[in-house]
Amino acid sequence: MSENRLRSDCPVNYLLELVGDKWSLLIIRDVLLNAKSSYGDFLASDEKIATNILANRLASLEDAGLIAKGQNSENRTKYIYSLTEKGLDLIPLFIEIILWSAKHAPLPIPEDRKEMVARAAQDKEVLAMELREHFLQGKTKIGL
Amino acid sequence: MSENRLRSDCPVNYLLELVGDKWSLLIIRDVLLNAKSSYGDFLASDEKIATNILANRLASLEDAGLIAKGQNSENRTKYIYSLTEKGLDLIPLFIEIILWSAKHAPLPIPEDRKEMVARAAQDKEVLAMELREHFLQGKTKIGL
Q: Same structural domain for residues B116 and B67?
């Protein structure tokens, strides 16, 4: 994203220009919270993203410096996607999204998110640090 | 938004289905941080929202229970928009957006946001409470 294409100098607008799109934020969620890293992983998510939208959003996120693309060491024709530091800095924002939805969504909190919600309500800062560490250690399952 | 139209039961997805759209979040920003409350106010923002998008997003936000529409006491043909409790609960999320952009945006922080960024960096919880109080007291200028 080139600076002079920004619609305003508002800090809120800046993030929204990069990821003010539900699909982009769901891809980041998948990398961060669901231990997903491949094109096929993202396609398989419950929200059923279309292949053309997925390809477009992955390119935008990489262009925005939020995710990085690398080669899969086991299969060099496949790419793996991970979060950059800039992307990892979105962790506190995702914690706020989870807390907000835990309070306001009409659905019960899914079983595999209950512990995360409880820990977010208890201490956001600690959870944010743990999620970052967890990601950087490359664990395949979030374990929360 | 009817519950059975949700694309998944993920709490992150829930918020994104309601406001995973840059224009919706910019309207909430305008009400919360820029003391805007009318159709004309929103139209005049730097990002230049189109009238048809604005009308559509205001209706969606009202439908989602994030904003409420009332009559302007001075001019009964005009509506004023305010945030509901559900909308006000997005304050911590906006604080995280501002902090993230203050760190990562290529632009300098606008003069009229510098104090808010400094206070967010110092104590998010206090700032969140102050923003809520400020909004509920109906001050016309944010004063931060």
A: no
With an 8 Å Cβ cutoff, are B100 and A94 in contact? no
Number of domains in chain A: 2
Q: From the candidates A30, A91, A96, which should be mutated to test the interface with B, based on the most B CB atoms within 10 A?
A: A96
Please give the average per-residue pLDDT across A97-114, as a whole number. 91
Q: Name every chain A residue with its beta carbon within 8 A of the beta carbon of B14.
A: 101, 104-105, 107
Same structural domain, B133 and B67:
no
Taking an 8 Å cut-off on Cβ atoms, the answer to whether B107 and A3 are in contact is yes
**Å from B135 to nearest chain A CA?**
18
What's the burial of A86, exposed, middle or buried (CB within 10 Å: 0-12/13-18/19+)? middle
The residue range of the domain holding A97 is 90-144
CA angle B132, B134, B137 (to 5 degrees): 105
- CA A68 – CA A65 distance, rounded (Å): 7
B31-82 pLDDT tens trace: 999 999 999 999 999 999 999 999 999 999 999 999 999 988 888 888 999 9
Q: What is the mean pLDDT of residues A61-68?
A: 96
Collect all residues of chain B within an 8 Å Cβ-Cβ radius of residue A109: 11
pTM of the model: 0.91
CB contact under 8 A, B96 and A92: yes
Same domain for B73 and B14: yes
Last residue of a domain, one of B37, B67, B84: B84
Per-residue pLDDT of A107-127, as tens digits, reads: 888 888 899 999 999 999 999
